[in-house]
User: Fold this.
Amino acid sequence: MTVKKALEWAGRVLKEQNIETPVKEAGVLLAFVLSKELSWLYAHPEYILSPKQAERFTSAVRLRSDGMPFQYISNKQEFMSLNFYVDSNCLIPRPDTEILVESALSWLKLHSRGVHRVLDIGTGCGAIAISIARYCEKTMVEAIDLSDGALEIAKKNALYHGVHNRIQFFKADFIHWEAQTPYSVVLSNPPYIPSAALNDLMPGVREYEPLMALDGGEDGLMFYRAIAEKLKRLLYPEGALFVEVGRGQAGHVRGLFDNKGLKTTVYKDLAGIDRVVCVEMSGKNS
Assistant:
């Protein structure tokens, strides 16, 4: 099987299964299997795949045609210009979440006094915690998650990026967990999909990503309420909270903290959607 024939076959299979941009995805899959750039494929259409390469490519195409996200096939996702191992034990990090990390990093640099204690709630593959530790050396990070599988992945990623000595991962159910010592910064991309809306998610998300990391309760706000109730115990008096929110949720989440007399700020993502709510303890009303 040549590169040209492989791409033609994969494009047909993916198109039949209603995969968007099947030609592009066929190229991405083959480039992954061959460990080549896309440009190389198109420059070498007559290259003949080895039997092992052909078998791996066929398997990858079948998985993708069944709806499995490419990131779970390749076990790789880029986030904050860093590569992370991912599989179905954890959510795939999204570009929108980079707004959460960048906002927190800006705050940390502005308040650069000594070493900051940082908490990441629902760490998943560790993308948020590891990015904070990687780009702000004056941090000691604690990251919690309820999934054993996700925590193992997060530890693996922290070791790969050389920040494992500044991150402590541990299993905890945040709803029933209490902090022993407050933090300078708390971050979370919590589950925020209303339970009834889970069935409406795209098949690649609904059937492959862990629903536990998506289900935000009846109205999607369950975890934000829990964070709001614990915030005074979570943060130092001058600390800050950063939480990612879903489309249309920013006003509701902001209200949970405004009602406690706290200063809130909303940051938009690249599409102009309200994506991150920041809460600063120093903004308490008198």
Observations:
- The chain has two domains: 3-66, 77-283.
- The longest helix spans residues 51-65.
